[in-house]
Structures are given as C-alpha cells and as structure tokens.
Amino acid sequence: MNNLPFELFVAVRYLLARRKQAFISLISLISTLGVAVGVMALLIALALMTGLQGELRDRIVGSSAHIFVHKVGGYSDYTQDMEKLRQMPRVRAAAPVIQGLGMISGGSGTGFVKIKGILPELEAQVTEVEKAIKSGSLAALAPVEGEMSGIVIGRELATQIGSFVGDRVELLAPEGGSLSPIGLMPARRAFKVVGLFSLGLYEFDQGYAFVHLNSAKRLAGHDSIDFIELRVDDMFAAGEIADDIGNQIGDEYMPQDWSDLNQSLFSALALEKLAISITIGLIVMVAALNIVASLVLLVMEKSRDIAILKTMGSSAASIRRIFMLQGLVIGLIGTTVGAIAGGVVIYIVDKYKLVSVPLDVYQISHVPFRLEVFDFVVVIASAIVICFLATIYPSRQAAKLDPAQALRYQ
User: Fold this and answer.
1) Which residues have C-beta within 8 Å of that of residue 361, sequence separation ≥ 6?
2) pLDDT at position 104, please?
C-alpha cells in the first residue's frame, strides 16, 4: 500500500477503519454488497429476457419462412411468380403454400389444426420443418399411386389425438365443402400419418399439420395457392428485403416479414425487459445512497484529519479526490463482485435449465439465459457512473471544510 498514490492510500485507509470507526467500515461493506447485489440481479434479469426473446425468435423463424408474399387477385401461375421472387437479390429459396383450417380426428381424440399444403422438396429449403422431423419423413408426403395421401403432424397433436406414424386420421376442411339440403358440408378426407415433427413451439407442435400441395388443393376446393414464402440470406434484413419486393417486381405483390407477423409478441417482451431493468436498477440506486451516507459520516468523523491534511499543504482538490476515490473503490469492488456472481449464476441456470416456464404460454419449456456484451458493458458502466456521482456531494463538503473551525474544539 505504501506504493499507492497519496489520495488512493488515504482513501483505502479510511475504508479499512478500525476500532472507533468500525461502524463506518460496516456501512461501506453494506454499500459494496448493495452494489454487488444490484449488478448481479440486473445482469441475471437482462440475460433471462434476452434468452427468452432469442429462443422464441429462433424457433419462430425456424418453423416459418422469413417473408410471406401475397398477391392481389391471387396466383394464376405461381411457378412464374416464384421464379421472379427467386431472382431478387438476397433471396435464397421460395416455396408455394396453401393454408386453411380444419379438424383432425385420430384414434382417441380430435383437435383443430392449421393445414399447410406444401411441396416437401421446396419447403425444406425455406423452413426448418424437415430438420424437426422426429419420426417418418417430410418427403413421404409425395403422392404415391394407389396409396392414401400422407400427412405430417406435430408430436403434441399426435399425443392429443392418439395417432402416430402409420395410423389413419381424418381431416374435415370447411373451405372445400359442398352444399347439401342441410347446408354446407365440410370436405372429409382420410390421411395416413407419415411423419411427426417437434419444432419446440407448442403452438406449432400442437396445432399444425402438413399435407402435399395437391392434397391441400382438393381440401380447399381450388387450384390457386394462398402465398409464396421466401428464405433470405439474413433474417434480420427480411424487413428491408420485403420492402424492395413491391418496388422491383410490382405493387401487386404484398410481402410481410416474420417480424411484422410477430410484432406484438416481441414488443411485449421488449417492454417487459425494460420494466424489469428499471425496477432492478433501483437496487443500484439504493446502494448509491448508502455510499453517500457512508461518505458523509466519514467526512464528519474525519474532520480533524482533513483539517490536519489541509494545514500540512493538501489542496482542496486533493481532499476531494480522496473521498471520490473512496466511493469509486466501493463501486468498483461491488461491481466486480456482482459481475462475477451474476456470470456464475447465469452459467449454472442456463446449463442445467433450472428456470421452467408454462409451455402453452411462452411456447418453450425452459428459459435459456444469454448475456449480450452490450448489456454487460452498459450495466457495468452505469453502476460505476452511479457510484461516482454518489461521491460528488460528500467530497465537495470535505473539500470545503475550514481547518480552523474543525480544530477549534479538538
């Protein structure tokens, strides 16, 4: 310690006060712990919300395309339109889709589903559904002469209706129904389950079914497709690429990117992240108030020492730096301890998946923790700045102390 600069040496000595000043040291310890707890809690909260956002985003984008392109008046010849869209810069793949609603009946139950008619070889290039197949295959949707049409359903849905690979199910689709004396009768077709998928999103795994495009046309009662889905080279540039589609190939094309379709979800998560950050950030503010209190008490206790230092030639700026450094030492130690503790907690809860959430609400079974470098830097910098600001008033009061007044009654 003898090699430390004068102001830092005095600041550290004051922090390690003994005997009569032990109470001040206790307050300094509490201030340090307050900063540490605040930093740790804030890092954990940010990692939790960032992990939740990232996991939902990755699974949503993996289960669906980056851009969905509708066309005014419908697609009369979707192959030409697909070729136009494929030629656009940064577009990697395109696939046609017919989508509708229906009810599926299996061995032991029924359920409502969104029916998605696809071409398996093209769908595999646009979404991650083929990679999510747990049994059977997506390619088995291709029609085979003399055999029942195939269907791929989510694993949660399969459990609900009691039908698995090789079983027969029935689909009822109101869009392709026919008129009868008693009203509109929904189209009813039998399918063979040829695959089960698990995308990790409850909404998809429990409520989606994939059939071949030709089967979807018969269910829907028409030959036109509903939209063309695209995959681009950068999911975060999907909005920009979608905006260029109308300008480059015609205003009749109406694109939507994945962020538009899920805007309400991610806006809610961003607002929740901000609210949690502000709430937990108040812990650091409370710790800063403890720093102010401890420094004010220290100035009162050390008034005689300050007066002696001034009579020995120490300037007001030097006295001010002593108490600023003392507050910064508290802040730096607390921030360092909190950052290390927060990092350890984040690593443990993420590795062992300790935080579970309702699957039907958040679409995932557990929350991954991801601490971004930007969030980490902002938290550390903010904590240090707050601790520094807390030293300004006590240090200025110490610098203004009149040596004659301080020593008069000593």
Assistant:
1) none
2) 97
Buried b (16+ CB within 10 A) or exposed e, 382-405: bbbebbbebbeebbebbbebebee
Contact 187, 172 (CB under 8 A): yes
Pair type for strands 110-118 and 208-212? parallel
Write down the pTM of the prediction.
Answer: 0.80
Q: Determine phi and psi for 37, rounding to 5 degrees.
A: -65, -40
For residue 170, what are the β-bridge partners?
105, 190
- Where do the domains of the chain lie? 6-60+265-408, 74-251
Sign of CA dihedral 380, 386, 392, 393: negative
Neighbouring-strand partners of residue 357: none
Q: Which two tokens stand for residue 376?
A: 């980490």
Q: To 10 degrees, what angle do helices 263-301 and 373-399 make? A: 30
Residues 6+ apart with CB under 8 A from 139: 120, 121
Tens of pLDDT, residue by residue over 282-336, are: 888 888 888 898 888 888 888 888 888 888 888 999 999 999 998 999 999 999 9
Helix intervals (H) in 64-201: 78-86, 120-126, 155-161
φ/ψ of 137, rounded to 5, equals -155, 155
Pull the structure tokens for residue 28. 């300094």
User: What pLDDT is stored for residue 68 in this prediction?
Assistant: 97
Structure confidence by residue, pLDDT tens digits, 33-80: 999 999 999 999 999 999 988 888 888 888 899 999 999 999 988 999
Structure tokens at 29: 């310890």
Which residue type, as a one-letter code, is found at position 30?
Answer: I
